[in-house]
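quick one, 212 residues, struct below
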Amino acid sequence: MLAEIAFQQDRQDEAISIVRLTLDVRLKDPFALHQNLLTVQYVLGDLLGRDLRTHSEAVNILTDVISQSWSLHGPNDRDETYAFASLADCYSLSQDWTMAAHFLRKVIATKAYSKGLNWKFNLLDCYGRAGQKEEALIYFRNDLKDVTKEHGTHNIHFLESQFVLMKLLTSWKLGDEARALGSSIVRLRRELKVENEVWPAWLEDLNSFVCV
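---
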């Protein structure tokens, strides 16, 4: 709680010191739950990852969180998922867009704890900044196929995948395919009754786009 207050007041060094102290105390406590230790360790890695000066330490801590999470719970645990996301943020901060995209793909592949987040759109942005538009086209075409297979074609997941692919096609000036997707998006948006939704953020972006 104190760390959160310090961070919100832009006292990041103080927030990091509080979390370090908390982690140190819990590591010395023989009765501390391993899961709680892992969560505190993740918070420390996430905070450190917001400053280029502590980038390397953040990467090491978050990588260790992922390894321990696998050992404790197997794949797709919450701490693993958010550690992947924090690593993507770390590499975005250092403008290593290829590595940022790598970890965002891992986040998306967990298919967990993603409601309301914009990871696919962040991935699209990383691909663009890395100059990997062909890789993006392959990835998001396959993503639409995977979502169709898993969820069908009448749900918010399909709408999201269509929209991100349409944005990519538009940037590549593949107009015919983009227009076909656009017509499908408008129809599905209406059928799902999400015309006035502003959350998650990509849905607000979609509704603004359709209204233009």
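The mean pLDDT is 87.
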